[in-house]
Amino acid sequence: MKPRLTVVVPVPRGAGAEGNLEECLASVAAQTLAELDVVLVEGGPAGGGPSSAVAHAAAERDPRFRIVHLAGGEVPGCGAARNAGARHAFPHTGYLAFLDADDVLLPRAYEDLVGLLDRSGADLATGNVYRLGAAGRSQSARHPAGRQTVLGTHVTEDLTLLADSFARNKVFRREFWDRHGFAFPEGEWCLDEAVTVPAHFLAGAVDVLREHVCYWRLPEGAARHRRPDPRGVRDRFAAVAAIRRFLGDAARPQLHAYRRDYDRFQLTEGLADLVAALPGAAPETRTAFLDCARDFLAGVDPRVFPELPVELRMRWYLVRAGRAADLLTLLRHEARNPAGFAVAGPPLRRRAVVPVSPPLELPPGVTRLGREDFPVCARVREAVWRDGVLVLRGHAYVRNVDAAHRHTVGVRTAVLSCGRRRIVLPLRTVAMPEATAESGQELHCYDWSGFELRVDPARLRRGGRWEEGTGRSGWCWRRRAGCGWRRRRRRRRVRGRRRWCARWRTRGRGAWCG
């Protein structure tokens, strides 16, 4: 059987990793794509550790598994092991994949990804990812659950692919990999994005698979959950700097415009885990982070910062100013109140205030508030049929705007859009303390953000008949006196048609909904 896909798996040397490795290799062996070449890369002294025994046992059971041993007294990093595995791939295999020892594949992962590449001729294919932790399975935040299968897209057409920086959920076309000479950094941290982000840009086309292909395990062992050290922090920022140089290369002028998008992603998501780890990090790690982060921020386009949410503007301002103590105070507050703040100032100059003592001194340009700083958080908690009527119960509130009483901000009506038809349905405000409990913060009360909506199916008929179609819903709001928001009715033209819209206004700032 001629293998079509080479899978590279570094063999870990730490104690307690053999159980995860055994489950990982079992998931590879169970793939519905049978034409595999699995390269298990060992480092350090030969024949050492329980994980090595698991790898050798897998190679003895299955002829598709083989061991590649890297000589040397030191255990190489994951990047070095991956690069060695790629070099040892059979020349005739058409595809290449990488997997960590604590990942678990779903049975059809490689068959589906390789199938997309066979159909489209794209250079790489990527799939959806589950997180697997102590609390069970959850959706990876970097891989939207609602994404559809798309053949032949590209990161310049879909910027959400900037967050798709894992290697574990991808299959690369071998010719594409060898032509560009991709190699993982051989530092302490295994930094997938140093390869996957340039690959997204260099690929002629990328296939995106809706279905999940693997579980990204979050192990509980201390060895894997150690706090970042100075070397790891520098490695991480070195990878970011390398990608920024790649996007700013004079030989690729067509990519220069995307460096700003990449910087924005790093400020909002990419570096979030490093920032979150600072309160528990050692002093030398915090110093390394501040030094590297200030170098990074110095090269970011200044126009990016005003576009960030207020909580991120405050965070990165303190980093750039080198105010480590104030930054830790802010992060500890955010740990208890994610994106939580109080609103102060005159109506035309609303600003965010972090309720800590002593107060944080921040410039007005950093703490200013706009529409984007008051997102709507909504959830339908129950949908049941009662006496032939659909009853929906849930909650909806504006973040950082209290809904502590029945007559504070809440949902008043829902608008169902079915094609050109719009059906306005009244809502009943109900108490729902679960909204506050599930918000993960202790600064604001959303107990009266609950609603109950009754949908009579007879209202959805057209001319007494049922029609197939899709519907959308929207919300109209009411306010408490003194909060600075008012509801207005305005008529405007949209593509030649007239329609009524509800407009929110905050002393000169407005947001359309409807």
Automatic annotation (TrEMBL):
Coiled-coil ranges from the UniProt annotation: none
Pfam families referenced in this protein's UniProt entry, alphabetically: Glycos_transf_2
InterPro entries reported in the protein's UniProt record: Glyco_trans_2-like, Nucleotide-diphossugar_trans
Domain called Glycosyltransferase 2-like: residue spans: 7-142
Name of the protein described by the UniProt record: Glycosyltransferase
The organism of origin for this protein: Streptomyces endophytica
Organism ancestry: Bacteria, Bacillati, Actinomycetota, Actinomycetes, Kitasatosporales
